[in-house]
Design a protein that fits this description.
200 residues, mainly alpha, 7 helices, elongated
Length: 200
C-alpha cells in the first residue's frame, strides 16, 4: 500500500511542476524583452519570445534571435498537453513494465511443475521397480530424465532469459531514452572520424 501510495503521489509531481516552470521562464523572458526593447504590454508579442526547446537566456544583443520567423510560437496549453501525454505514457509504461515480470513468475511455475512431472515419470518409476530390475531401471530412467531436463527445462530457461533481456533492451530501455525525432542513426566508427580529420 505504501509503495502504491508513493507511486500515485509521483503522478501529479510529474504532471504539474514542469508546465509551471516553463510558464514562469516564459514570463521572465517577456519581462526581460520589455526592458531590453523599451516596449510594454501589447507591444511585445509573448507568443514569439520563447521557443519550446530554447533554454538560452535573453540578452540585449540577442533580441533579433527571438522573432516570429524562426521561433516556434510558445503556447502554454501546448506545453500542458505535451506534459499530460508524457505522464500518461510514463504511467502506462510503468504498469506494463511491472506486469511483464509476471512472465517470469509463470515460466518459473511451469518449470517447477514440469520438473515434478519428469521426476515422477522417470526416476520415481525406476525406483518403484523390484530389486533386481530397479538398478538397471534407475540408470535408464536417469538417462531419460537428464535428456528431458536438458532439452526442455534448460531450453525453456534459456528462452526465458533471452526474451526478457530482449524486452528490457527494446521496450523498457528504448521507451525511456529513445525519441523518434527523424534523425538518421549514424553508428560510431573510427573510420568515419579519421576520414573527417583527413578532409580537414
Amino acid at each position: 500500500r505504501l509503495l502504491m501510495a508513493v507511486t500515485m503521489f509521483t503522478v501529479p509531481i510529474m504532471l504539474i511542476p514542469k508546465p509551471l516552470v516553463k510558464f514562469m521562464q516564459h514570463k521572465a523572458r517577456v519581462r526581460e524583452l520589455e526592458r531590453a526593447t523599451g516596449r510594454k504590454g501589447a507591444a511585445v508579442d509573448p507568443s514569439c519570445v520563447l521557443p519550446l526547446q530554447d533554454e538560452e537566456s535573453l540578452s540585449p544583443g540577442s533580441i533579433d534571435d527571438f522573432g516570429c520567423d524562426d521561433a516556434e510560437p510558445w503556447d502554454f496549453g501546448e506545453v500542458v498537453i505535451h506534459q499530460v501525454i508524457e505522464t500518461i505514457e510514463y504511467v502506462l509504461g510503468t504498469v506494463s513494465h511491472t506486469a511483464s515480470y509476471l512472465r517470469l513468475w509463470a515460466l518459473s511455475l511451469a518449470h517447477q511443475q514440469l520438473s515434478v512431472v519428469f521426476f515422477s515419470m522417470t526416476l520415481v518409476s525406476g525406483m518403484g521397480a523390484p530389486f533386481p530390475l530397479n538398478v538397471i531401471a534407475i540408470y535408464l530412467a536417469f538417462a531419460v530424465w537428464f535428456a528431458v531436463t536438458v532439452a526442455i527445462l534448460l531450453g525453456m530457461d534459456t528462452m526465458e532469459c533471452f526474451l526478457h533481456t530482449l524486452r528490457l533492451h527494446w521496450v523498457e530501455f528504448q521507451s525511456k531514452f529513445y525519441r523518434g525525432d527523424g534523425y538518421l542513426f549514424t553508428p560510431f566508427r573510427h573510420k568515419d572520424i579519421l576520414a573527417r580529420r583527413a578532409d580537414e
